[in-house]
Design goal:
- With about 400 residues, this protein is mainly alpha-helical.
- The chain has helices at about 25-45, 50-75, 80-100, 110-130, 140-160, 165-180, 185-190, 195-225, 230-255, 265-270, 275-290, 300-325, 330-350, 355-375, and strands at about 5-10, 75-80.
- Strands 1-2 form a two-stranded antiparallel sheet.
- The longest helix has 27 residues, at about 50-75.
């Protein structure tokens, strides 16, 4: 990978070279570690149904900002001075978003809205700059630039509108941002400029690894400075086993042959990563709360529901992700197993109030690992390397 800022703007497929993730992309992804940590801290301080809803409302624009920039990196190859400066400016805006996340529904709501506006407008500028050099991409770029600029303007306007109307504008802006690439005209133009599928799969895989790593960091942070005891080590081991099972399930189910995936399946593959990353982050928060408990004491209701709900959401989302690349003849069987495992986890959340913390966590881990074992033992076609169906964003 070259570190020289001298590569001209071009579509990803024009030079015919094997695509590699650039150092700038890796650096860019790391800035999201900070904001994912802050999102987890927000949920940790607000473990309740309302807190979970607000957590999701914050998570969606964060994930969308990463996805939007990821697709720009995916479609266009560029490494010049202005590109780097614009990316660094966007990274600074993302860092400011991270600072304001925990107060996004209080004193930091204006800062969050304006920083997100800056993040999206920098992407618009990048697209407009690209349109000057890549003629084939101009129709799609004009559509993206106009739609994203209008949505970003709503975020800027919301900063000067009092709550709770400000948050209603956020929802409207997000709906518009999702509609832009999903509209029929956009999908037609995207088919003329398909993304680089191996690069796409690798970027989503790396982002999932980042979120998984952050989740385990929360567990370690909760126990840092304490003298390990057999009880805490047991809960930590169970937490690690759960994190490993999430990794295993994602990379076991998300990969597969997708050359003949339908357009609808392609979009499903992309957008299912939103609930997956939400679930992984929430699992990390739930583990952080549980590993410091007495393993023999009952799980508090809110922590039990948080962990069970997040783990169940993850299993269902990954099962749907697997359907995108699964053989049709095996879909019903594996989906049934995934639903059964998710139902078992939700049952722990619903009826496990009297269970000791260690037993409740153990049952959730068993459900996840049962899903892994059945996936490997049930007859199925050998999975192909981790890849993604063609999609857009």
């Amino acid at each position: 990978m070259s570190i020289r800022a001298s590569r001209p703007l071009q579509l990803h497929h024009q030079d015919g070279e094997e695509r590699k993730i650039s150092w700038l992309e890796l650096f860019y992804d790391l800035i999201y570690v900070t904001i994912i940590i802050q999102l987890g801290d927000f949920l940790s301080a607000n473990v309740s149904p309302l807190g979970a809803l607000l957590f999701v409302l914050l998570f969606v624009p964060v994930w969308w900002s990463w996805t939007g920039m990821m697709f720009y990196f995916n479609r266009f190859l560029v490494d010049d001075l202005w590109h780097r400066l614009l990316v660094f400016a966007q990274m600074f805006a993302i860092a400011y978003m991270a600072i304001s996340v925990t107060g996004a529904f209080g004193p930091g709501d204006q800062a969050f809205a304006l920083s997100y506006f800056a993040v999206r407008m920098i992407l618009v500028i990048l697209y407009l700059r690209t349109g000057q050099h890549v003629i084939d991409a101009r129709p799609l770029i004009r559509r993206y630039a106009m739609g994203f600029a209008v949505a970003a303007s709503l975020w800027a306007i919301s900063a000067f509108v009092p709550a709770p109307y400000r948050y209603a504008i956020w929802v409207v802006a997000l709906v518009l941002e999702f509609w832009v690439p999903l509209s029929s005209d956009s999908r037609r133009l995207q088919s003329l400029l398909p993304p680089d599928r191996p690069h796409l799969a690798e970027r989503y895989g790396l982002f999932t690894i980042i979120v998984l790593g952050e989740s385990f960091i929360k567990v370690v942070g909760a126990l840092a400075g304490q003298v390990p005891t057999p009880a805490t080590l047991t809960l930590m081991l169970l937490g690690f086993a759960l994190a490993v099972s999430l990794w295993w399930l994602y990379f076991e189910m998300a990969g597969g042959p997708a050359e003949h995936a339908t357009a609808r399946a392609s979009y499903t593959w992309i957008y299912l990563h939103l609930p997956i990353t939400i679930a992984i982050t929430a699992v990390g928060v739930g583990l952080k709360k549980i590993v410091v408990l007495d393993p023999g004491a009952p799980l508090p209701d809110q922590y039990r529901w948080l962990l069970a709900g997040a783990a169940g959401l993850f299993l269902l989302s990954v099962a749907l992700l697997g359907l995108v690349v699964a053989q049709a003849g095996r879909r019903r069987l594996h989906t049934t197993v995934a639903v059964a495992a998710s139902a078992a986890i939700v049952a722990v959340g619903a009826y496990g109030g009297a269970l000791p913390a260690g037993i409740g966590l153990f049952l959730i881990v068993v459900a996840c690992w049962t899903r892994i074992l059945t996936k490997r033992l049930l007859p199925h076609r050998l999975a192909a390397p981790h890849t993604a169906p063609e999609g857009s964003g």
